[in-house]
Design a protein that fits this description.
By secondary structure, the protein is mostly helical. It has a single domain, classed as Growth Hormone, Chain: A, CATH 1.20.1250.20. It has 16 helices and four strands. The strands form two sheets. Strands 1-2 form a two-stranded antiparallel sheet. It has a two-stranded antiparallel ribbon with strand order 3-4. The chain is globular, with a radius of gyration of 22 Å.
């Protein structure tokens, strides 16, 4: 199917009036969409392969298994995840103005691979340096591959939201498989201490990242020029200069991760968000009132995105310790691996994403599809309902051994997934629709920065849930009750102000 023009709200190396390349279609979508989500599949394989193991590894390796280390591990994990997403703002800017999307993605994949292998080394300093290296590489990779998806569709193309939802489903196949495989490696295959098995998990994830690198290198010819360097930026020396900049950035990220602390990092990320908002607004003002209003609407939604991820991202922190210590995982003598809970979310995404995509299409044809703000409101409410289930389990279903039933945590992941599908893929699509043409990569970085702020707050919140000596039923109930009321209140507020946000969006659906 041919597409007539570049989306005016997508970054591109082509002028806005130039035609989008003509692509063959697979299942009704441009063929390069499937190449991009397979590259992201392997990147997500790597990312989620280590996600479930990080907090458990920190406690086992650096705290000798003492549960008093849970709070510190949660805060380190939250800070790491926050920096992963915050780095996207710089990676988006580099792609927009310096390297182009293709070269940014390739360089980011190389750097991430190195970091994943580094964290397997048995040194706490090297572990933290490895995490910092992953952060820098992910900043160059993550926002730019998402931005390129938006460039495959023309303005007003109704397939765009559904394309992002399919992309979101595809990349989650990687996050489905990796916890299962690495969980088996850690708990079943190697007859060695668990701490050593975690290192095998990290190496396996590094191999997955190398596959992503090769896949994109081979498949990038399908893009027909989309994502090439900006005009005047073809000089290959730019890659060298950005690589040197990445080397300089790694110790800075190390300092932010290890020395600064989660609370100070929260203030820093907040200041960074304000600076990004100002940059986007300055560019929007140059393009007139409509663009200015659209950027304001986008920034308002970014704030609600912070709230969503603050509580959703308990999966890699407090939910891990909940699963390990308070959930009954015993099935007639066989213990369900903690890491396998991380696969519930991607399984639910793979199953439910097509249903949600079809549902939005049916509602659109009937002229009753929820607006972007109301989809976000639904995401917040469903996330809150997951915490309501935990409140019920921790107050009414605790057995004599101090455990809650397996099915409760399983369903928490499923309910949260429904909320995620209402919010996250729609957010990626929203940025490409509302952002100024010249700064869509930076705006996509802003989307991930708002996620970063939420993730850092999630680590602080998870540390409170675990308390001083490790998680208890009482500390979990108190924390998750706060989560429910916070999410419900945010969701209701967003529903109430949705008409105002829609007005600011000037017809963007």
């Amino acid at each position: 199917m041919s597409v007539d023009a570049v989306a005016p709200n997508s970054a591109s190396n082509l002028p806005p009036a130039s035609p989008v390349p003509e692509f063959k279609t697979i299942l009704g979508h441009p063929k390069p969409l499937w190449m991009l989500f397979m590259a992201e599949f392997w990147e997500r394989f790597a990312f989620y392969g280590i996600r479930w193991a990080l907090t458990l590894y920190i406690v086992a390796q650096f705290w000798g298994g003492d549960s008093a280390g849970e709070g510190s591990a949660n805060r380190t994990y939250g800070a790491y995840l926050a920096l992963v997403y915050a780095s996207a703002i710089f990676g988006g800017y580099v792609a927009d103005r310096v390297l182009g999307y293709q070269r940014s993605i390739l360089l980011g994949a190389v750097i991430m691979s190195a970091g994943l292998f580094m964290i397997a080394l048995p040194s706490q300093d090297m572990f933290h340096i490895g995490l910092a290296t992953i952060v820098v590489g992910n900043g160059l990779f993550k926002p730019n591959i998402s931005s390129m998806v938006g460039q495959l569709y023309a303005p007003g193309d109704a397939r765009r939201d559904r394309g992002f939802t399919l992309f979101y489903m595809g990349i989650n196949l990687g996050s489905l498989i990796s916890p299962l495989l690495t969980g088996i490696l850690a708990e079943k295959v190697f007859g060695t201490p668990m701490v050593q098995n975690y290192k095998v998990v990290f190496i396996t994830s590094g191999i997955g990242m190398l596959i992503s690198l090769v896949w994109f290198w081979v498949g990038k010819r399908q893009l027909k020029g989309i994502g090439l360097p900006p005009v005047g930026g073809e000089n290959p020396l730019r890659v060298l200069w950005v690589a040197l900049g990445a080397v300089v950035a790694i110790p800075i990220v190390y300092f932010l991760l290890v020395k600064l602390g989660a609370t100070a990092l929260a203030w820093l990320l907040g200041a960074l968000f304000i600076g990004l908002g100002v940059m986007l607004l300055v560019e929007a003002v140059r393009n007139g009132t409509v663009q200015t209003h659209r950027v304001i609407a986008m920034l308002i939604i970014f704030l609600f995105n912070v709230m969503f991820w603050m509580f959703f991202e308990q999966a890699g922190s407090s939910f891990n310790f909940l699963a390990q210590n308070i959930v009954n995982r015993d099935f007639s003598g066989w213990l369900f691996p903690v890491g396998w809970f991380q696969s519930v979310n991607p399984v639910a995404i793979v199953v439910l994403a097509p249903v949600v995509a079809v549902l939005w299409g049916v509602l659109d044809r009937r002229k009753i599809e929820p607006s972007i703000p109301r989809k976000f409101g639904l995401g917040l409410v469903f996330n809150g309902l997951a915490f309501l289930l935990l409140m019920f389990a921790l107050s009414s279903l605790v057995d004599d051994a101090g455990k809650i039933p397996f099915w409760t945590l399983f369903m928490v992941y499923v309910i949260q997934t429904v909320g995620e599908l209402c919010l996250s893929p729609i957010g990626l699509s929203m940025v490409t629709k509302l952002a100024p043409v010249r700064l869509v990569g930076l705006a996509m970085g802003g989307w991930f920065l708002s996620t970063a702020i939420g993730n850092n707050l999630s680590g602080i919140f998870a540390g409170i849930v675990s308390g001083e000596r490790g998680m208890t039923v009482e500390s979990a109930l108190t924390g998750y009750t706060f989560g429910f009321w916070s999410l419900l209140g945010a969701g209701v507020l967003l529903f109430l102000i949705a008409p105002l946000i829609n007005k600011l969006m000037h017809g963007v659906k």
